[in-house]
């Protein structure tokens, strides 16, 4: 296999993490001193640092901060002595945060004693995290000269230099690759064109010089281990499954909402994240490959007797490992319930094609496990290994704490502060071991979900189109997915922020005929022209502008539905994964002519949300989507959009042929 690890191997002194090759990219001060790290070491370590993280404290002024020397910073490069980092001249103790870092503890440990910005230059998933760090773990500051040295002397290469060529999508992050099509363009074709299919990678994409000979994966069942090459898969019966894949964080906007102390509402704290338009992190394809149960049967597992309950299950889970690995050498790995893998109707495939073409590199070429109805992350790409186990996978991806159901008293402060709440704590049988009184379950199937794709977030309907909206209503469109194979019975839409709803028209593109009961893997499209209320019409006719809040709410055939924003408090996790509550999409109706706004101020929409919000802050404006703000945002701000962390590719600049190809 060609991997970034292998390619960069000769360059550097190696770290050892749990017997694995580690950190080929880092030579900085932190790397040389902080070598004895790893997830296991992390969890067993007893930090000598006193108090846990304080999340809401006052941030001291710079002149009141203790000056910390570079040597002292560099000495704190491990979990025992404390894990410190410098960032924008400040020094932070991230010992506690490392345990719950969504990118994994190993990666932060690599940065121990050195400067964070060097890593963020590579990992575009991070916006500016200063506010969050200032409030949670600020220790002191470096002198200006030391801050410069700390940055310059931290050396970290780029493991993502040889990623496959890509285009067309809205790129949220280049490394690891996170990208998708702009919301409305998802509705161009029921099966998403491969070039537009959403990508949510965790590590660099692996590749093979000679895939026929070099690529293989291993399957372990009790008493037998067997290797498969591509030709072995081709010799088995091929199956076809029509399925939508959806990311655990499908509704990226708004995520990172944290349970507040009084638990009555959700509040957006400064936890770092990229906000994007009302995109849906999901796409649809027809997949072919070999049924996972057929491969397990070939290895000796009596899948039919197990599925019928005639024999006891030999294990709870099927662990899936990918050929991709992070820069500490840790592989990607997830688990799925064994009963799903052997379910004759579960449709778990070892997929080799999408929409009739070979899997693209970004989607797991040459073999990816398709687990319909489950969160995208469970659909392991670049399959390396399948094994039966009673334990979750030991990888960070499987044990991290963002796809679990927490006790009702869990909140952001506890999550960030409590050392016992580590990803490793959820490893046994998917239960939470950190809290004696409560159990925490790992979510595998997606809950019911819907997204508004038209109108786009913050879009503006100008005077040119108002007459039609007054007559016909506002056109609202989107998608819905039952999750876990459940059929959608209804999607309700609202344009007044959820005060009143009407049912939308559903379109499943004939999938109803394909699917069996409770095996509805495909998304539904829905649309409606929602009439304006008399009050809204009156306002518009009086020449005033209106800001509407467009909301959708899907319901499955079981009556399960999406919670309101207030009720979403029952679903907490740090990054808002699996949060399926009804999101609000602001859209403005104005009696001003769009072409005049365009002429005088430059069209600013669409703009990626992180920069949009930055512009907002810059202008000191509040509220979303009012005409004053639209008019004030200018071409200058569009030009200041930061392409380094969030590259906006305007889909309008591509031809319709491009989009559909
Ligand atoms: C204290 C410093 C750090 C903070 C506050 C931080 C914060 C975060 C957050 C909030 C995310 C989730 C992003 C999202 O889901 O939108 C994330 C993901 C990630 N972080 Fe960090 N991070 C830090 C340090 C680092 C370092 C030093 C590295 C690498 C050497 C790193 C690598 C990553 C990666 C690769 C991901 C994506 C993981 C995935 O694929 O899900 N982070 N980080």
Automatic annotation (TrEMBL):
PROSITE patterns: CYTOCHROME_B5_2
Keyword terms: Metal-binding, Molybdenum, Oxidoreductase
Keyword Metal-binding attributed: yes
Membrane-traversing stretches: none
Necessary cofactors: Mo-molybdopterin
Pfam families: Cyt-b5, Mo-co_dimer, Oxidored_molyb
Residue ranges occupied by any Cytochrome b5 heme-binding domain in the UniProt entry: 65-143
Keyword 4Fe-4S: no
Name of the protein in its database record: Cytochrome b5 heme-binding domain-containing protein
Organism: Durusdinium trenchii
């Amino acid at each position: 296999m060609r991997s970034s690890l292998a390619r960069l191997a000769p360059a550097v002194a190696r770290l050892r993490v749990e017997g694995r090759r580690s950190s080929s990219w880092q030579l900085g001060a932190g790397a040389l001193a902080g070598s004895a790290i790893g997830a296991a070491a992390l969890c067993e370590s007893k930090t000598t640092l006193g108090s846990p993280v304080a999340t809401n404290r006052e941030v001291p002024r710079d002149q009141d901060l203790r000056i910390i020397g570079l040597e002292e910073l560099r000495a704190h490069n491990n979990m025992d002595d404390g894990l410190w980092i410098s960032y924008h001249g400040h020094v932070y103790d991230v010992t506690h945060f490392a345990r719950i870092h969504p990118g994994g503890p190993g990666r932060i440990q690599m940065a121990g004693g050195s400067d964070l910005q060097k890593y963020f230059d590579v990992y575009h998933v991070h916006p500016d995290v200063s506010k969050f760090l200032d409030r949670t773990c600020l220790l002191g500051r470096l002198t200006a000269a030391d801050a410069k040295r700390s940055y310059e002397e931290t050396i970290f290469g780029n493991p993502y230099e040889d990623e496959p060529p890509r285009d067309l999508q809205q790129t949220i992050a280049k490394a690891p690759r996170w990208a998708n099509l702009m919301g409305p363009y998802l509705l161009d074709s029921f099966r998403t064109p491969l070039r537009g299919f959403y990508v949510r990678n965790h590590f660099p994409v692996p590749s093979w010089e000679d895939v026929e000979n070099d690529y293989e994966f291993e399957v372990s069942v009790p008493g037998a281990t067997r290797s498969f090459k591509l030709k072995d898969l081709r010799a088995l019966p091929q199956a076809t499954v029509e399925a939508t894949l959806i990311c655990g964080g499908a509704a990226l906007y708004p995520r990172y909402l944290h349970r507040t102390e009084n638990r009555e509402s959700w509040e957006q704290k400064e936890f770092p994240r990229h906000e994007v338009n009302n995109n849906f992190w999901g796409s649809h394809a027809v997949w072919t490959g070999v049924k996972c149960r057929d491969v397990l049967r070939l290895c000796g597992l009596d899948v039919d007797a197990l599925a019928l309950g005639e024999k006891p299950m030999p294990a709870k889970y099927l662990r899936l490992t990918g050929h991709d690995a992070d820069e500490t050498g840790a592989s990607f790995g997830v688990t799925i319930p064994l009963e799903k893998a052997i379910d004759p109707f579960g449709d778990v495939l070892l997929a080799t094609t999408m929409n009739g073409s070979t899997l693209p590199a970004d989607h797991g070429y040459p073999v990816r496990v398709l687990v319909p109805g489950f969160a995208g992350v469970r659909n392991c790409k670049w399959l390396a290994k399948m094994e039966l186990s009673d334990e979750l996978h030991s990888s960070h991806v499987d044990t991290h704490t963002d796809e679990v159901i927490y006790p009702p008293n869990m909140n952001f402060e506890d999550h960030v502060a409590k050392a016992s709440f580590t990803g490793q704590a959820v490893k046994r049988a998917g239960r939470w071991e950190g809290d004696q009184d409560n159990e925490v379950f790992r979510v595998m199937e997606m809950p019911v979900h819907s997204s508004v794709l038209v109108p786009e977030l913050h879009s503006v309907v100008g005077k040119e189109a108002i007459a039609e909206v007054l007559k016909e209503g506002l056109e609202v469109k989107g998608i819905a997915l039952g999750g876990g194979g459940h059929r959608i019975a209804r999607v309700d839409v609202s344009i007044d922020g959820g005060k009143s709803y009407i049912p939308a028209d559903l379109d499943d593109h004939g999938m109803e005929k394909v699917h069996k009961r409770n095996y509805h893997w495909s998304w539904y499209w829905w649309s409606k022209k929602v009439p304006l209320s008399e009050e809204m019409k009156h306002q518009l006719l009086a020449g005033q502008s209106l800001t509407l809040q467009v909301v959708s709410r899907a319901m499955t055939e079981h009556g399960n539905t999406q919670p309101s924003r207030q009720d979403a408090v029952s679903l907490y996790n740090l990054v808002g994964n699996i949060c399926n509550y009804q999101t609000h999409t602001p859209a403005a109706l104005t009696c001003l002519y769009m072409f005049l706004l365009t002429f005088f101020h430059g069209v600013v929409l669409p703009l990626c949300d992180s920069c949009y919000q930055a512009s907002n802050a810059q202008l000191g404006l509040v509220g979303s989507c009012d005409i004053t703000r639209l008019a004030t945002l200018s071409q200058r701000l569009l030009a200041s959009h930061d392409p380094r962390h969030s590259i906006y590719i305007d889909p309008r600049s591509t031809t319709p042929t491009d989009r559909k190809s």
